[in-house]
Design brief:
Strand content: under 5%
Radius of gyration: 12 Å
Number of strands: 0
Helix content: over 70%
Structural class: mainly alpha
Distance between the termini: 41 Å
Shape: rod-shaped
Order of helices and strands: H
Largest sheet: none
Length: 28
């Protein structure tokens, strides 16, 4: 189902985004 795929994709993107934010806050 396309909606499920979209939801999973958005979830994955959110995970990656927060991981990036975590990395940059650790760095500073």
């Amino acid at each position: 189902d396309a909606n499920t795929i979209k939801k999973l994709f958005a979830l994955k993107k959110t995970e990656v985004d927060s991981a990036e934010v975590g990395k940059s806050s650790l760095r500073s």
